Amino acid sequence: MRKSGILMHITSLPGPEGCGTLGEEAFAFAAALSRSGISLWQVLPCGPTGYGESPYQSTSVYAGNPLMISLRELAKDGLLTLTDGDAYADENPETVDFDRVRAWKDALLRRAYRQSGASLQDELRRFADATPWVMDFALFTALKKRFGGVKWTQWPDRDLRLRRKAALQQAAERDKDEVGYQIFVQYLFFKQWDKWKAYCNSLGIRIFGDMPIYVAEDSADTWTRPDVFQLDRNRVPRKVAGVPPDYFSEDGQLWGNPLYRWTYLRFFRRYDWWVDRMRGMRRMYDIVRVDHFIGFANYWSVPYGAPNARGGKWIVGPGRHLFDRLKRELPGLSIVAEDLGEVNDRVRRLIAYTGYPGMRVLTFGFGGGTENVHSPVNYTENLVLYTGTHDNDTTLGWLKSANAEELRDARETLGFTTLEEGVPAFVEACFRSPCDTCVIPMQDVLGLGTEARMNLPGTVGGNWRWRMKEGAFTADDEQRLHTLNERYGRMNRK
What we know:
Blueprint: E1 3-7, H1 24-36, E2 40-42, H2 71-76, H3 98-116, H4 121-130, H5 134-146, H6 158-161, H7 165-174, H8 176-202, E3 206-211, H9 220-224, E4 239-243, E5 253-258, H10 262-267, H11 272-284, E6 287-290, E7 298-303, E8 313-316, H12 320-329, E9 335-337, H13 345-354, E10 358-361, E11 383-386, H14 395-401, H15 404-414, H16 419-432, E12 437-441, H17 442-445, H18 475-487
Parallel strand pairs: 1-2, 1-12, 2-3, 3-6, 6-9, 10-11, 11-12
Antiparallel strand pairs: 4-5, 4-7, 7-8
Helix pairs in contact: 1-18, 5-8, 14-16
């Protein structure tokens, strides 16, 4: 069935809490999408962010980001008392100041815990019993706080680094209040998430999530399950992830995530860690976009400590065996394969074998002739088409920076003349395409420029901060999307 979606991260929603939350604005945006005929809401990874605030470097593959919890909803539920003096002083409502928001929100969530934690003990116990990962995550987060936020591989207590049973029990007792607080926060997140997701689904809107293929080195996942990763006996990575040098970077990209022990996972664990992880993703999302799907076919392995990614090499990945297992254990799991980058025959064969839709980006499709897989002449049904992604400039930004050949090709193909006509032409081309699914970043719906770019790969700081201005998504915008959905057979009939 043909459908359309909007890419809009939760933290990019407007509102009075310094960043977008799962509160009133999330429900209002879902209602606006429904009125527009949109049937997919795509978000970025929703876990707790670490250094650099990247959603792709979370401290847990399971946990939710506390910044997305709506304090106003807690107040409505009687779990938190707020006064006028508790209001967030938002200096720039079109960006997120993560450090300020985190400090402000953490203080008020701790107040909620003091006010309401004791009365929720039965619910919190049931939540913990039904959520196997939450105790380890809570203890990990408590210990990070105790040790000043340093990486867990640098904790001064070696027994805790190596998870000796007696040391864990002692730490859990010593920091039981902090552990309880962290469980309370996760309980609140998933309570609000479930309510919001149920509302979206009731409107015929499916939540399209995003899952990084790798996990952060400094995460509860590597601490809890070091056997899954290529670590030495001191839990330091042996090899890490990245991508090789290419047209965009002569040194490649050194991501630094620990790589998996694929042979061990297949023959000794039957991919149990991956089954659990994907079960968690299915619990949160209706559809899962797997970032860097290429890595399941072959991955770039770089020695730990290397200054760049040049010295890496390609290693064969798990391939079809992993997805055979996932399909047996989690039938009906809906996956989109992010296959941008260096795609070879091994990658193409794996995607064809799984049947998962791949991705195409319209702003990549000009200036390279018909051999360019992103050219509109090469689109097929089993694809998800974007004007751009979170890692690209906005379409208006691309139009202003494209070279003469790219811009001429785009104008001739899409039929526009001025830059002002360009963004609507790109959006309509996605709706018009033969691809079953098209997704438009919210910045392109609003026609915003480079100032609204979400991320510049290879840089740390200043990314992920964009927020939609209050009232920017107007009734006229809804009507334009509605018209496109009707015209090109993508209407959400719910």
